[in-house]
Structure formats: C-alpha cells, structure tokens
Amino acid sequence: MNDKLNNITEKKYLQEDNLSEECKKLLSILPKGKAWIGSYIYNYQGCWIPPRLLQGMIACQQQFQAEDSDIILVTTPKSGTTWLKSLLFALVNRVRHPIFEPNHPLLVKNPHVLVPFLEHELYGDGHVPDFSTFTSPRLLATHMPFATLPKSVLDSKTKLIYLCRNPKDTFISMWHFANNLRCHHKDTNSIHEMFDLFCEGLSFSGPFWNHVLDYWKQSIENPNKVFFLMYEEIKEKPKIQLKRLAEFLESPFSTEEENCGVVDEILRMCSFEKLKSLEVNTNGKLSSGEENKVFFRRGEIGDWRNYFTTEMNDKLNHIIEEKFQGTGLKFQYV
Ligand code: PAP
C-alpha cells in the first residue's frame, strides 16, 4: 500500500518511460554511474545527467536558436536558481511589470514558471517550445555545463549569468531535494553514500568543480558574455550585487528608481521569506510534479555545519583545495 501511495507521487524528473529510441540507443553506450535517486545517471560530454534530462539537453543542443537579446541563467543545481530567477525576472521586466504593482507575476507564479529551464520544461519530453509567447529579452535557464551549451548560444550575443554556491551547502541542499524527490522511501541512500558520489563528481550536472571552473574561466576571458555570481555574495551584499547585475545587462537603475525604492523592493519581493510565504509557493506544484515549497527550504549559508562529520569536512576541503587552487576562485564559509 505504501509503495502504491509513493508511486502516485513519483515525479516526472525520475521517469524514464518517455525516452525516444535515439536516446535509449545513446544510453546503451554512455558510461553510467549510480544515481542519487532512480537507477543510473549517464556521462554525456563530460556531464553526469539523468536520462530524461539528457533527452532534453540533446534536443536543446540540436534545436535551440539563441537570439542576441537572450539572457540565460546558468547554475549548478541547488545554488539559488529559484532566487536568481526571481531577481532576474523582476529586474528585466521592471518597466512592463512595475515592482510595486499589486498583481506582479512573482506574486502568483513560481519563478521556475516565469524563467523556464531549457532542457527541462522547454525541450524535455520531446516538447517543441513555443517561443512566440515570450517577450523580449527572453529569460531562460539551464544547468548545462559550458561545453554542452548549444552552438547558437556561443555564436550569438546572448548573455550568460552564472550562479554557484559553496559546495558544502550545495551538497546538503541537493541531498534534501533528492530525498524529497525519492518515490520509494525505503530506497534511501545515506548522506554518506551520496556524499561519496558527490565527491567522485557523480551529481546532477556534475562534476560540480568542472561546471563551476569552466564558467569561471569564461567569465574572466569574456566578461561581457559571462557574469559570475555566488549565492554567498548576494546574501552578503544583495543591493550591490543586484546593481552589478543590472549594469551587466546594460540596464542600470536610474537615480530616480533608486530614490523611489525600486532596488529595495525587488530585493524584498524576492527574499526567501516573502517568496516562501506566497500561496503559490506554499501549495502550488510545477507541471513536472515537484511541489513549489521544496525550492524554499532554509535559504541560509552554513547549514552544512549541521550535517557534516569531521571526516566529510576534511575530505571535501581536500578536494576543494586540489580543484580550485591557483584558479583565483575562492568559496566563502567553507
Ligand atoms: P534548483 O537548482 O533545483 O532550481 P535552487 O533554487 O538552486 O534549486 O536551490 C534551492 C536552494 O535555494 C534552497 O537552499 P537550501 O536547501 O539550503 O535551503 C532554497 O532554500 C534556496 N532559496 C530559494 N529561494 C531563495 C531566496 N529567495 N533566497 C535565498 N535562498 C533561496
């Protein structure tokens, strides 16, 4: 009975029954590893990815035509994507949807609906996206590593905003999310098993370090194309980071906007407390089955301290040092 009930709540993310023949054929030859949830994840072009999203990623690579005005938010999963989606939406649409408007879209829609993932909502499950309903600039998101981005994204003037978070909190947030997605609760991986997989690079869109470092390098080589942000930086100095973001997008806040409190209001509207408390984010669900509330857990820096053993901490510190030493990239709060 319990299994039956759990099956009913199975999320689309985990389903593998709608895969195309082309995708099934590819899966049969790709390297595979143990997944945190479901059976396997597969290594495609250096990136670990579950089957359903692999299909979406390949369709996106083959079909997506970027436009110069596009803005694509790229993140490692669980680094604050939902937060930055909301900030970006509010920022970019502040003329069309003034932030003080009583029925602002962010009050009634989850940020994942307003800024959809390319490989998930738009190209997942064989969908053909209808971009005619989008306003310009199009706001899109992805977890795809740099090396796997569609060619048109690199050939166009599309801007990329990259967000990552310290790997310890990222791991803990992913672990909680995976536990939420799990359909058979008896099929539980311990935090230690998942941690070992994370350290080996086997996490969704992993290896984590490759994902972060590739975009970090691009942001240095091509600062007009790739803007690199960290969750902790936004937490610490939200106003400064939001203004930097507006400047990168060539739409800086005017003095009048600042004086009228637009920057503060965007930050308030997109704050963890505000978004979490909204009806849509308390009781709503995404079309893919996830409850909106799972994207708002604690929203803090340093929650890893409540879970990490000394051994886990030592192991990840060692990896962080090995992978990031000499790159100029430093994580805070680790
Ligand atoms: P995704 O990659 O699957 O879209 P993502 O939004 O990146 O997920 O991750 C959710 C994390 O962002 C959660 O972190 P936690 O598990 O450590 O709590 C979530 O709480 C946090 N988060 C969501 N919205 C906000 C916000 N407005 N401010 C700060 N953190 C937030």
What topology does this entry show?
Elements: H1 2-8, H2 21-29, E1 32-34, E2 40-44, E3 47-49, H3 51-63, E4 71-75, H4 81-92, H5 105-108, H6 111-114, H7 118-122, E5 139-142, H8 151-155, E6 159-164, H9 167-181, H10 191-199, H11 208-221, E7 226-230, H12 231-236, H13 238-248, H14 255-259, H15 262-269, H16 272-277, H17 279-283, H18 310-324
Parallel strand pairs: 4-5, 4-6, 6-7
Antiparallel strand pairs: 1-2, 2-3
The structure holds 3'-phosphate-adenosine-5'-diphosphate (PAP).
3'-phosphate-adenosine-5'-diphosphate binds next to helix 4, helix 9 and helix 16.
Pfam family, one: Sulfotransfer_1
GO molecular function, one term: sulfotransferase activity
Family: Belongs to the sulfotransferase 1 family.
How would you describe this structure to a colleague?
The protein has 334 residues and is of the alpha/beta class. The protein has a single domain, classed as 3-Layer(aba) Sandwich (Rossmann fold), CATH 3.40.50.300. 46% of the residues lie in helices and 9% in strands. It contains 18 helices and seven strands. The strands form two sheets. A four-stranded parallel sheet has the order 5-4-6-7, sandwiched between helices. A three-stranded antiparallel sheet has the order 1-2-3. Strand 2 and strand 3 (47-49) form a beta hairpin. The chain is globular and about 55 Å long. The chain binds 3'-phosphate-adenosine-5'-diphosphate. The site of 3'-phosphate-adenosine-5'-diphosphate has 21 residues, from helix 4, helix 9 and helix 16. 3'-phosphate-adenosine-5'-diphosphate (PAP) binds at residues 75, 77-83, 169, 173, 176, 270-272, 275, 295-299, 303. Belongs to the sulfotransferase 1 family. It is an enzyme of class 2 (transferase). Residues 68-328 form the Sulfotransferase domain.
